Structures are given as C-alpha cells and as structure tokens.
Amino acid sequence: MDIKNRIEEIKAKLNQYNYEYYVLDNPSVSDSDYDHLMNELIQLENEHPQYKTLDSPTQRVGGEVSSKFEKVEHERPMLSLGNVFNEKELRNFDERIKKSVKDFTYTAELKIDGLSVSIIYENGYYQRAATRGNSLIGEDITENVKTIKSVPLRIDFLDKLEVRGEIFLSKDKFNKLNQERLENGEELFKNPRNAAAGTIRQLDPKIVHKRALDAFIYFGFHNDFSNHYQTLLKLKDLGFKINDRTKFCNTIDDVIAYVNDIEKIKHDLPYEIDGIVIKVNELEHYDSIGYTSKFPKWAVAFKFPTVEKETVLNRIDFQV
Ligand code: NAD
C-alpha cells in the first residue's frame, strides 16, 4: 500500500475509534492500540507533510459536543496532552524545554483515567461545570458535578477561579455498578473511565448521585498563581481534592524515578491510571515553551506500556 492510502486508512480508523470512544462511550479497541495507530499517523505526516490535512485526527482534541446538554464556551481552551512512551522520549521532552528556558522544575502527577472537567467559582460559590468537548466548547454538566461530594460548593476565595480536574469512578464503585448491571441484565461498562463518561452524561442527576463519582483537581487558573505546584497546594488548602501522590521534581531524573515507582504500584491504586503527567511548574515559561494546536509543550503524558509486572513499593506522599 502506498503512503497516501495508508494515511487515509489510519485516518478513517481513528475517526471511527474517536466516535466510539467520545460519543458512544463504547470503545472497540484498547487505548494502546489507538495510541500506536495515532503515533504511526503522526510519524507518517511528519515524514510526508504534503499529506497532512486540516481534518486529520492528529490536528484536534478528540471530544464531541453532544446535543443532550447546553453548550459552554471555555474561557481558555481545554487542551489534550502530548504522549511519550519511554525514558528516552521523556528525556527528549526535557531537552526540548531546556532549549527554550532555564531554571525550571516539574510536578509529576498520576494520570487518572477518567474525563476532564472545568469548574468555575465566583464569589466563593460553585457556579458551573463543563466537559472538555472539542476543547473550545464543552457540555454544561453543572448539576451532575454537584453530586460529587469532593467538589466543594463553597470556597474561601472571593475572586473568580477556574479549576480543572479528572472525574473518575473508583475500582470498587465500578465493580459494584457492573455487578448491579449484571443482575439487572444490563450491558456492562467496559472500564471505569467508560462508566464515568457514561454517568456524567446522564440526564438525571439522581442516577449520577447514586453512582458516586469522584474528582481529583489538577489545575487552577487565577492571575495570582505563578507556579503550578504552589497552585495545587493552594487548591488543597481551599478544600479541593488533590491527589496525594503528586510529587515536586527538581529534575527529569526525579521524574523518571517517580515514573518507575508508580509503575510498580499502579495496579494497587484504588482507581485506574493510564500514565503520569509531567508539567513545568513556572507559569512564566509557558508562553516561551509554547503550544501546538492540540497540547501544551510544557507538559506531557508518559503512557504506561500495556504489559507490566506488579510489585508493591512504598507510598510516595504529597509533599506539603
Ligand atoms: P490523553 O488521555 O492522552 O491526555 C489528556 C487528558 O489527561 C486531559 O484532558 C485530562 O483529562 C487527563 N488527565 C488526567 N490526569 C491529569 C493530570 N494530572 N493533569 C492533566 N491532565 C490529566 O488525551 P485525551 O485527548 O483525553 O484522550 C486521548 C486518549 O484517549 C488516547 O491517547 C487514547 O489512549 C484514548 N482514546 C482511546 C480510543 C479507543 O478507541 N480506545 C479512542 C480515542 C481516544
């Protein structure tokens, strides 16, 4: 098959997989199969830019905006993350940053496998929650997110504040839900992410309440915030649920040690993760490091390989 046809073939497949994943909440292939295909497409398009089209799945953030909910325009785009799959690619990410800026540190966080949410607070009150959607326009899920008990409805912060985080279903809650569905003869959810995404799109908040979703917050936006790690500490003080394995890292070696530690214990966590997110802390560097149309260049997701061994390591505490 020639290159052009291979590109068209992958594009068609990825578009179909995106539809199944984001619209139907019912994927037919594994995330790692999807990621490999996406990587092949990125590589082919880089080698043959004449075949790169504006409608390529490499050019956009995956979600679709459903018509079930009101549409919400995000104040700042909700981007995706670039992926790396091994230590070498992670070191390349670090090298690229070093080419643009000096004096920076990282935060390494678990990449919870759920769906992202933007939540706006005004005058200290919970105002609105929205899905990522197509990154610019999401769906209004204010009522459903209100049922998540770890999301505060009132905070001691009077200015406008946007936080972002990941809505997820714990492994326990997921198993219980599927057990009930089995007993009722209903179709089972494939995994906790898929169950969380299906639940947040329920039109009846009572059903959402019963399913007991949870949310970790991993971003906060306010003019006073100048350092990502400090922002997380501040959000924690305000009562948001910040993952306690979040780790401040001085260098990429610290990040790699963290990735290796987490990889060994990931199956013992009470929720599913599909990788580690690494972010530069110093916000003043973000514009110099830059963005692509799909993701910031100052952050990256390290995706775990699909087959690994399981071992238990010591807990890494959120260093307050
Ligand atoms: P992504 O999953 O690679 O990463 C971006 C997302 O990570 C963010 O939007 C956020 O929701 C989440 N996240 C979790 N923890 C975070 C943290 N601490 N900080 C920041 N973000 C955090 O990208 P995506 O665009 O959400 O989804 C693409 C991925 O979805 C693909 O790489 C693939 O694995 C999967 N996918 C699978 C299929 C399939 O058919 N199996 C189809 C489409 C997409």
Automatic annotation (TrEMBL):
Active-site residues from the entry: K111 (n6-amp-lysine intermediate)
Recorded superkingdom: Bacteria
Residues annotated as binding NAD(+): D31, S32, D33, Y34, D35, S80, L81, E109, R132, E166, K279, K303
Transmembrane segments: none
Family of the protein in this entry: Belongs to the NAD-dependent DNA ligase family. LigA subfamily.
Function in brief: DNA ligase that catalyzes the formation of phosphodiester linkages between 5'-phosphoryl and 3'-hydroxyl groups in double-stranded DNA using NAD as a coenzyme and as the energy source for the reaction. It is essential for DNA replication and repair of damaged DNA.
Protein name, UniProt field: DNA ligase
Species, as recorded: Hujiaoplasma nucleasis
Residues of the full protein shown: 1 to 320 of 661
